[in-house]
Amino acid sequence: IIDELTSKNGHLMIDGVDSVDLVREYGTPLYVFDISKVRNQIREFRSAFEKEHLNYQISYASKAFAVKAIYQVMKQENVHVDVVSGGELYTALAAGFPSDKISFHGNNKSLAELQMAVKNHVGVIMLDNFHEIELLRQVLKESQETIQVMLRLTPGISAHTHKYDQTGQTDSKFGFDVKSGQAKKALKLVLDNPQMKLLGYHAHIGSQIFGTEGFKMLAQKMIEISKEFQNEFNYWPQVINLGGGFGISYNEDDDPITASDFISAISQELKRDCKEIPEIWIEPGRSIVGPAGYTLYKIGSRKDIPGLESYVSVDGGMGDNIRPALYQAKYEAVVANKMNQADVETVHISGKYCESGDILIDHQKLPQTEVGDVLAVLDTGAYGYSMAMNYNRNPRPAVVFVEKGQAKLVVKRETYEDLVKLDGNY
Ligand code: LLP
C-alpha cells in the first residue's frame, strides 16, 4: 500500500494535492478522500460486469461513509445507493440523490421510517422480517401506494471474516431463513399483496471477504432457491442482489482480489446452470470508499518505556476510527511530511482518548518523528467517519474531498459549541 503512494518534496500527495497544505488549511484530525479513486473503483466494477455481459446494478452501501457530498458523487456516477436508516435516507434525499435509486435496508425499520420510504418513493425496500412485512402492509394500505420490495434471505453461508462482520449464516439476525421455511412463508405473503411488487431476492454474506469461494457458493445457492421457489410459486426473480463485502488491503497481510475476479467468479456460477439469468446487483461499501480515505493527524507526545515499547500519540484516535479497538483492525501509516526519510524505528501509534485500547496501530515502522509531524493513516475511508463519535467530548473531524489537484471542504469540523448544542440545563 505504502509503495503506491506518491510524494513531492517529501510530502504525501493525494490526487495532486499536498497533504501538508491540507493540514495547514483545515487542521487535524482530518479525513481526506481521493475522489478519483472512488470513481475508478466504481468504473472497475462496471467494466467487470460489462466484460461478463451481465445485466447489473451497483448500489453503494452508504453505511461505509454517508455524507451529502458522497451521495452527490454517487449521483454523478449514476449508481444506486443503499441506506439502512431514516437518517441515511434523509441525508441522501437532502443531497438531491434520486429516490428511485435508493434501496432501504435494515432489520428493524420503524413504522416512521417505512412511511418516510414510501412517501419518498424509494426504489426498493429490502424486507427483512415478518414484523416489517406487516408494518409495510399497513403503510401501503393507508397511503394507497405501491412499492418495489426484495426479500432478504439468510442463505446459510458464512464468510470467513471477523465474527462481527458475518451476516449470512443461519443464526444471523438478518433476513428470512431459507432452511426452516420462513423464506417461503414471506414470499407467499408478498406475492399475495398487490401493493408490494417483488423485484427479487437479496443476500449478504459478510464484510471484508477475500476469496471468491463464498460469493460463488452464494450465487449458486440463490439460483437453487429461485428454482425451488419457481416450482412452487411460478415466480422468477427479476433481480438477485448478492450484497457487498469485497475485501480491501489494509496492510501487507491482506491479499485482496480485484473486482473483476469477484464478478467473473459469480458470473461463471450463474452461467453454468441458469437459463434466464436475473439482473445482478451488488452493494459494495468498503471497496468503493475505503482505499480512497486518509486520516491526517498531528503527532504530539511520546512515551518511551526503556527496553520495552514506544508510544507516539496523535491528536485523534478511537473517536474517529473505532475499527482497531472494535475489530482489531490493522492499518498502516506514513509520516506525510517526511516521505523521503527512511524508517528508523517501530512504535505504537496511540490516540488521545482515555482508554488503554485506544491504539490506532501496533508496531508501525516510522522515520524519526517529532512534535508537529503529520501522520497519515491509510485506507480509512470506510467505516471511519461513519462510525465516528464524541467520546471524551472530542469534536468530530472535518472531511475534505480532493480530485485532480483541487480540494473542497465537504464536512466542517465540529466545534465545542456543536457539542453542547443539544444539551439542556438542569
Ligand atoms: N450490504 C449489506 C446488506 C450490508 O450489511 C453491508 C455491510 C454491505 C452491503 C456493505 O459491505 P462492505 O462492502 O462495506 O463490506 N463496521 C464494519 C463493517 C460492517 C458491515 C455491515 N454491513 C467494519 O468496519 O468492518
Automatic annotation (TrEMBL):
Coiled coil: none annotated. Pyridoxal 5'-phosphate binds at G245, E283, P284, G285, R286, Y383. The modification N6-(pyridoxal phosphate)lysine is found at K63. It comes from the Bacteria. Its EC number is 4.1.1.20. Substrate binds at R286, R323, Y327, E355, Y383. Keywords: Amino-acid biosynthesis, Decarboxylase, Lyase, Lysine biosynthesis, Pyridoxal phosphate. It catalyses: meso-2,6-diaminopimelate + H(+) = L-lysine + CO2. Pathway: Amino-acid biosynthesis; L-lysine biosynthesis via DAP pathway; L-lysine from DL-2,6-diaminopimelate: step 1/1. It is an enzyme of class 4 (lyase). HAMAP family: LysA (MF_02120). Belongs to the Orn/Lys/Arg decarboxylase class-II family. LysA subfamily. Specifically catalyzes the decarboxylation of meso-diaminopimelate (meso-DAP) to L-lysine. PANTHER family: DIAMINOPIMELATE DECARBOXYLASE (PTHR43727), GROUP IV DECARBOXYLASE (PTHR43727:SF2). This is Diaminopimelate decarboxylase.
